[in-house]
What does this fold into?
Amino acid sequence: MAKQNGNHNNNATFISGYGLRKHFKLGGQLVRALDGVDVEIPKGQFLGIMGPSGSGKSTLLYVMGGLDRPTGGEVIVGDKYLHSMNGEELARFRRESIGFIFQQFHLVPTLTALENVALPGVFAGIPREVREKRSRQLLNTLGMGERLDHKPSQLSGGQQQRVAIARALFNNPPIIMGDEPTGALDSKTGETVMNLLRWLATRQGKTVIIVTHDAGVASYADRLLHLRDGRIVDDIPAAPQEMENLHVNR
Amino acid sequence: MFSELAGLAIGNLFRARARLVMTAGGVVVGTSAVILLVALTFGLQRSAEAGIGNSTAVTEIQVYPSWEIPPGQSPEDLPQLNLETIQKLWRIPGVAAVIPFVNLQVGGELLSGKYVGGANIVGLDPRLLPYLGITLEQGELSLQPGEIIVGPFVGENFYDPTSEYYEPIQVDVFSTPLKFHVINWNDGTEIKKDIKVSGTFASGTSYDYTIFMNVNDVIGYNEWASGQETDPDTFTFGQVIVRAESRETTIDVTNAIKDMGLNAYSMGEFLEQMNNFFRTMRLILGGVGGVALLVAAFGVANTMTMAILERTREIGLMKAIGATDRDVLTVFLLESGLVGLAGGVTGVILSFILRRVINQAVANAPTGDGSVTNFLPFNTSQIGGNLIIIPTNLWVFAIVLATLVGLGAGLFPSLRAARLSPVIALKQE
Ligand SMILES: Nc1ncnc2c1ncn2[C@@H]1O[C@H](COP(=O)(O)OP(=O)(O)OP(=O)(O)O)[C@@H](O)[C@H]1O
Ligand SMILES: [Mg+2]
It folds into this structure.
């Protein structure tokens, strides 16, 4: 059913979740963070996930990104069956396939912008010179070329989030996932970040999945999922973006 | 891959420099304690060995016939110090020389004018002289018939037999003419012969009161006294000295001689016991130093636990961008191992500085009556400013130990970090 909704290009399904459940036991009480979610996402789609606080948005994102394991159900990304992977395989999957962006940026405070962006390369075993070259290139592309040696504390929120996006792009993953990436930014810088993500989906064919509270932010998406109490209550295609107006702030 | 993670770990270490210095400081103290306490036992051991005497004393084994008759055997079965036994002794591996002594079986003394000097008179094959382990003080190492080599105390213990009181009189045995006087107590006959001292030797051996004489001279006197020719089949030596090739073989040779059914005693055996004592002492003092290192280990564990608590979100982030559990474990273990290594290396440097200070203080300490060094359990002059001895393998071992302590202390915190759920870690405020 999700297949027909929200996908104008009708690409083959890239990410799919079937019967996803995630239960927590909290003081003897069972919390159903996900309670039977079915979802199919084609390649290159910009998907927004909305819903009230506690509805399971973050949980769904992390389960699809291989950062958390569902209590039940299946997650398939490309030809990979995440629910049957061990920890090592999941780490490798995250390294190769997913770029995460967080509301709180989660930059390492003692590392420079350049080093933060290059951090995924450390775990991928990429030599230092290669790491730095790619990191510099990404930061230049995102308009951060003058801030390479700045520590996160010396950067504005919008700049920090752009560093975080550059880091998410470091291993050139096909999927970018953001958990309220504009949540800590003012609306102006939030727009910059959203334009950037939109551009990644449109121009680079990345599949972008964004959790957000903000209807303005949601307007960048190709499709919106609405969650409530761990279930999808709405799945609607958004209006097609006016690509001509898209302007990446450098 | 490993070097990438190591780079990250080193970078992390320098984030909290003050904490690094304090944590490693504990390891520095612990490492120095282990090194210095163990090094002290090496110094004391060397001083004790210096007190034992020269190295020839160590390779000397004294062999006697056994007095104990093994059950089911008769006294005749016990090996005697006869020619057959001497040949067997020569064949023991590690033996440099077998030196049989033939005792003079009649009374013998030296006469210098009216003075008489007595001593233990021993007959020896001149060819074995170099193996005796004596250092000539005067003259030469020669034992032609009619020649003797005398111990250092022989000349100091002459006396006047006509005098009322016994009073030792010193005679220069080397330059005054001497006669050798032998008395056969069986029939009262006696011989007086001119005799020449060919050499005297330094004190410090077990022959200080001994006169060495050509073995044929001694056998001649014995035959004269007994009126019989020596029968090689029944002849026994009074004492046999076995010289081992080296200090290491001395114990083995001693045991081989005991296995033959003979009594054997060597300084090497005593040394072995002493070494055992120092080995025990080393373990105990090393253990005391180890306690200091153990305390330091808790410091490292504490620091690592704190670091991991502080960096929980960072651990979650590392996992989100593709770090495996093992990567996280490696980074944190490397950090704690490096703390141990840095502490160990600094501890070694500190130990070498303290060694210099202590040894110089000992070397410069006043000696003699009433000086404080008399109360020390060792002779400062024998140590010669070497109270603290740090062998290479001691400091290498200390560095390895400190690194292992760091790794061990970091193991549980690091495992905890590695097992953190990334989602929970990222939510941490
Ligand atoms: N580790 C956990 N232990 C217990 N309960 C949890 C845990 N993580 C999430 N939950 C619960 O699961 C439910 C869904 O959480 P989730 O974080 O997915 O919500 P969300 O939609 O992202 O909310 P928000 O908009 O506030 O971020 C909530 O009720 C939450 O309390
Ligand atoms: Mg959330």
User: Anything to note?
Assistant: The first helix of chain B runs from residue 2 to 13. Chain B is about 50% helix and 15% strand.
